[in-house]
Amino acid sequence: MARRVVRGLLLLEAAGLLGALLLYRAMDRSQDFRYTMQKRFPSILEVYYKSNEWSGIHGIRENDQMAWLSSKN
After folding, report:
1. Positive or negative: CA dihedral 36, 71, 46, 30
2. DSSP per residue, the chain
3. Which one of 4, 20, 67, 68 counts the least CB within 10 Å of its CB?
4. pLDDT in the model for residue 58
5. Closest CA to 60 of 25, 27, 37
6. Does this model's pTM top 0.85?
7. What's the confidence (pLDDT) of residue 73?
8. How far from the centroid of its chain's Cα atoms is residue 2's Cα?
9. Region 44-69: what's the mean pLDDT?
């Protein structure tokens, strides 16, 4: 029984990790998807921006803001 619980927890953790990876990949590839995330889940988008800044990739937030402001005008 303990093995089943451990196996279930490992599968759940792997599914969560895969989901987070797929979400990051979708945000990394599509500015439109990031715009949708800004409207629906701004805290998740903030984590995306911070993780990129921590890894040395700068300017994504600024590029998005400029594109979104120019599309409104």
Report:
1. positive
2. -HHHHHHHHHHHHHHHHHHHHHHHHHHHH-HHHHHHHHHH-HHHHHHHHHHHHHTT--SHHHHHHHHHHHHH-
3. 4
4. 94
5. 27
6. no
7. 66
8. 34
9. 95
Distance CA 11, CA 19 (A): 12
The residue assigned the tokens 């995306």 is 48
The label of the residue with tokens 């797929």 reads 22
Residues 6-52 pLDDT 10s = 999 999 999 999 999 999 999 999 999 999 999 999 999 999 999 99
The structure tokens 């029984």 sit at 1
